[in-house]
Amino acid sequence: MDISCSHQDNISGNTRKRGRPRKDEVVGSSHTSPHVSLPQKRPVGQLESPTTTKTPQCHGTYNDPYGIGHSYDDNRNGVIGTSSRHSKDNSVNLLSSFDDVNDSESHEYGEDDMIDDENEIDENVEDFSNSEDAIENDTVMSQAHRDDMINDENGEEFANSEDAIDNDIVASDAHRELERILNCIGKSLRSYADMPFPPPEFLCGISNTLIAEERSYDIQTMMVEHQQLHSSLNADQMIIYDAVIESVYNKRGKVFFVYGSGGCGKTFLWRTIISRMSTSLVSRLKQHYISCWSTDFPFHRKCKNWILILQKTHIHAFAGLEFVNGIDFVPQEGKVYSISNFSVGNTKYSYSVVSNKKNLYFLNFTKMIEVEEDDEMIPKYKFELAAFNTLKDKVGDTKILTDLMGLVQNRLPMQSRNTQTGPKDVLLFDISDGSSTVKVTVWADLAHKLNEELDGMLGQDNIIIITSCGITEYHEQLQASTLSPSKFYINPEYDAVNNLRYRLNVMNEPIVLDDKFPAGDCAVNKTPVYNLKEIMDLRNSELKEMDVICHVSICSVEEQSKWWFYVCDSCPNEVCVKDDNYKCECGKIGSYPDKRFKPHWSKSKGRERRPITFIRSWYLSLLTMTVLLTIHQS
Ligand SMILES: Nc1ncnc2c1ncn2[C@@H]1O[C@H](COP(=O)(O)OP(=O)(O)OP(=O)(O)O)[C@@H](O)[C@H]1O
Question: Where is the composition biased (Polar residues) (predicted)?
Answer without folding.
Answer: 1-14, 48-60
